[in-house]
Write a structure and sequence with these properties.
Elements lengths: L1 H6 L14 H6 L6 H15 L5 E8 L7 E10 L6 E9 L1
Antiparallel strand pairs: 1-2, 2-3
Length: 94
Amino acid sequence: MVRVMANTPHGSWAGCPYFGLRELLEQSVTRPEKVQVALDEMNRALDDLGISGFRVESITRDSLAADEVGEWTVKLISMTDPTKTYSFQSSGQT
């Protein structure tokens, strides 16, 4: 699901207005504060979808701003056991 959210246009899914991060992640190349907006939107989408077992703790860009393809790592944290974390990597056009 994380990969789908990263590649989906923001606000394009009528079932959940917070779903989709592509534009926010693309904009973060020149506006780093958009990463926090993407993190907040991802957690809102999880809430809206009734997913309560984990939350997004961080989103970090693994590629350079000049790279044609942006690469990201999304770190999730368990809400039942905060010592458990999960990381997913995603890449897409910037």
